[in-house]
């Protein structure tokens, strides 16, 4: 659902030892940060270790391991979180293939005690 | 004097792709839908439309209410969510869930919505415990009955029993038209055919959907079976979506069955998938559904809910809602004087 927006258009930027992009949730409504169960990022085919990713939202920055207790911090559906991915030497100026998979727990869809976890993958070629 | 008829309206969920892509803000949608005459009833999803829901800033609430007033909207229904799995480590217990939902009831009351939509993760025990707050705040609890559930699903029967026992006007149901369809929308097949899914598989899915009509089934098991069928016939990445669209949003319930709960209906979701150029919705029997509502004396809102955007991302949702409301209006006009635009 709404997968096209997972990587926000035009949001790829290079830094000295990292790159950043805007991450949107592929869902129709706000969810708490505790719902983000997974994030995998590849650039030009090479994976960035997920534990090195940092997410910034409303002035706070988190690692994925910080998120599970944050069930009262809301990620508003129209907001892009800025993801910062370390990459030694940064990225070259120009076009790059960004491949992002996000896993979201849907908090009101529960079957036999198990909440639904949606995984959506978005691949885009963006210019930095 | 003729009896009052149902009134039309729209849920802004119909325009989710426009909102999500940033083509319209929430406030833009309130204005645009009014200017296109898609009212008078307005339904919104709290967690979609209001930043900070259910504890929005005073400014957000004031701006919304000003727009509602300026554009002649009537507040029909606020959609709550029963987020029992909001925590990562465990499900909320009953006390926590009651507190979680009371905050949404309070938000509905502050804004002036007469109904809060709730979902089936709210057990009868939770609903019973929410009733005092609903009565105090004068907001009705409307339990949505959405495909593949029906008025005879075990959890709905349990709730009907509770409602009969408590006998409060603040307890009700919200039928979703998508629970009573004649088949899977042809627009689903058009979309997946264009993505390269084989005709044989699409026919097998349609046939299996027809077979489900005559018997009780568990949704998650059947979605699993459809995924298996789709995989075995080469659907690849499309298997899960095909299964969810087939089983999860196209229901088999006889439209007449809504009559069983009509005295308790507090709002209606006018779900549809595609109104074609000839002005017809191929799988949602809108005219018959409206006949059932009118015969049962329902005079609340039917909020048009366009959901074809799940697969058809190109359609103009505003145009789709306008077409569906024209259909509803024709069906209502049979029963009385012309329905005001």
Counting copies of identical and different chains, the oligomeric state is: heterodimer
Helix fraction bin of chain A: under 10%
Largest sheet of chain A: 5 strands, antiparallel
Count the strands of chain B?
A: 8
Q: How large, in whole angstroms, is the Cα Rg of chain B?
A: 20 Å
For the biggest β-sheet of chain A, the strand order reads 1-2-9-6-7
User: Which stretches of chain B are poorly predicted, pLDDT < 50 over at least 5 residues?
Assistant: none
CATH superfamily of the largest domain in chain B: Divalent-metal-dependent TIM barrel enzymes
Average pLDDT metric of chain B: 95
What is the overall shape of chain A? globular
Summarize the structure in short.
The complex is a heterodimer of chains A (128) and B (341). By secondary structure, chain A is an all-beta fold.
Polypeptide structure, described:
The complex is a heterodimer of chains A (128) and B (341). Chain A contains no helices and 11 strands. Chain A has strands spanning 13-15, 18-23, 31-32, 36-43, 46-48, 54-57, 60-63, 74-75, 81-86, 95-111, 114-127. Chain A has a 5-stranded antiparallel sheet with strand order 1-2-9-6-7, with no helix packed on it. A 4-stranded antiparallel sheet of chain A has the order 5-4-10-11, with no helix packed on it. Chain A is globular. Chain B is of the alpha/beta class. Chain B folds into 2 domains: 7-183 and 252-333, TIM Barrel, CATH 3.20.20; 186-246, no CATH class. Chain B has 13 helices and 8 strands. Chain B has an 8-stranded parallel sheet. In chain B, helix 5 runs parallel beside helix 6, helix 10 runs antiparallel to helix 11 and helix 12 (286-295) crosses helix 13. The mean pLDDT of chain B is 95.
């Amino acid at each position: 659902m709404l997968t096209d927006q997972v990587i926000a258009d035009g949001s790829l930027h290079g830094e000295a030892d990292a790159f950043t992009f805007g991450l949107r949730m592929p869902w129709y409504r706000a969810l708490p940060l505790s719902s983000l169960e997974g994030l995998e990022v590849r650039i030009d085919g090479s994976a960035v270790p997920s534990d090195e990713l940092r997410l910034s939202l409303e002035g706070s920055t988190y690692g994925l391991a910080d998120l599970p207790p944050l069930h009262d911090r809301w990620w508003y559906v129209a907001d892009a979180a800025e993801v910062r991915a370390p990459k030694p030497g940064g990225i070259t100026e120009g076009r790059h293939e960004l491949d992002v998979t996000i896993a979201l727990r849907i908090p009101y869809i529960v079957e036999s005690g198990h909440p639904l976890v949606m995984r959506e993958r978005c691949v885009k070629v963006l210019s930095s | 004097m003729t009896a009052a008829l149902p009134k039309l309206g729209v849920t802004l969920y119909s325009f989710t792709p426009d909102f999500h892509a940033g083509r319209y803000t929430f406030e833009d949608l309130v204005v645009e839908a009014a200017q296109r005459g898609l009212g008078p009833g307005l339904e919104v999803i709290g967690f979609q439309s209001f930043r900070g829901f259910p504890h929005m800033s005073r400014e957000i609430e004031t701006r919304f209410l000003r727009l509602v007033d300026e554009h002649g909207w009537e507040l029909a229904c606020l959609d709550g969510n029963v987020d029992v799995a909001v925590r990562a480590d465990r499900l909320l217990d009953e006390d926590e869930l009651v507190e979680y939902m009371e905050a949404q009831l309070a938000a509905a009351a502050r804004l002036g919505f007469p109904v809060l939509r709730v979902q089936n993760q709210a057990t009868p025990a939770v609903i019973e415990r929410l009733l005092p707050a609903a009565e105090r705040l004068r907001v009705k609890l409307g339990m949505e009955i959405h495909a593949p559930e029906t008025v005879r699903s075990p959890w709905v029967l349990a709730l009907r029993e509770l409602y009969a026992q408590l006998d409060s006007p603040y307890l009700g149901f919200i039928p979703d038209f998508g629970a009573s369809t004649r088949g899977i929308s042809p627009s689903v097949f058009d979309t997946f055919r264009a993505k390269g899914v084989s005709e044989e598989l699409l026919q097998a899915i349609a046939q299996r959907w027809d077979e489900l009509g005559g018997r009780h089934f568990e949704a998650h098991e059947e979605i699993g079976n459809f995924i298996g069928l789709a995989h075995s016939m080469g659907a690849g990445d499309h298997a899960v979506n095909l299964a969810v669209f087939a089983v999860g949003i196209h229901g088999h319930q006889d439209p007449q069955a809504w009559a069983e709960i009509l005295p308790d209906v507090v709002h209606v979701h006018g779900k549809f998938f595609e109104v074609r150029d000839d002005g017809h919705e191929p799988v949602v029997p809108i005219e018959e559904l409206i006949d059932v509502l009118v015969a049962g004396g329902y005079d609340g809102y039917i909020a048009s809910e366009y959901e074809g955007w799940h697969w058809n991302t190109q359609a103009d949702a505003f145009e789709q809602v306008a077409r569906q409301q024209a259909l509803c209006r024709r069906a209502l006009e049979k029963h009385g004087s012309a329905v005001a635009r």
